[in-house]
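Table 4 source record.
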Amino acid sequence: MVRPLLLLLLLAGIAPPAAAGAFDALAPETGAVVAEVIDGDTVVLADGRQVRLVGIQAPKLPLGRPDFAPWPLADKAKAALAEIALGRTVGLGFGGRRMDRHGRWLAHLFAPGGLWVQGELLTRGLARVYSFADNRALAAEMLALEDAARDAGRGIWADPFYRVRAPEQSDAETDSFQLVEGRVLSAVVVRGRGYLNFGPDWHSDFTLAIDPQSRRLFEAEGRAVESYTGLRVRARGWLKSFNGPMIEITHPEQIEVLSE
């Protein structure tokens, strides 16, 4: 039996990706030509649809925001996406919610020759994994590609702006998207809400918070909040200040276990 997305790619003249089996969960859609590249993770199709490359976050450009300083390598990420996709017919694959609040389509893109666009940008070190609870498809594959690029020091991973922070460094990085790596000192559930604490003082030390609905996602995959105690992990998300630096965790892919 030919997989639906694989069949779509073949009919569109696009060779299947090497890891075609990983794409079974995606709902395919007829391909379209990329008419414009807005930044490193957003394109406009010839039919007028704006598509956000779901699952990744490329370095950001100002895009009309006068007080916003571009992130390092933002121009390079945009140029790489243009090189891969501009003017080409791409296949779209959906693995969760299809549209964001800005009216952009949320899709995985597949370029001619079988190139998975998100995977290629991660491999080049020009994006980070940025998944959501309602859009988790291929997150494990993307995390593996990101890890390999970071280990090799490619792209953004050679720039201190994107370095993985230690818990004690996170207080200076609030109101930004960060990766934070450290050992969980304690993991508790209080009134249904999970907390992973990375220091002895929960009033000031770095913490991961997991609401009751998100906890159920973890438990469904056999990972109770308390089981993180003593583990070294890498967490990702937007840092905010609430009894010290905190990241709200909404799904398991935001926490990579580095050592049991």
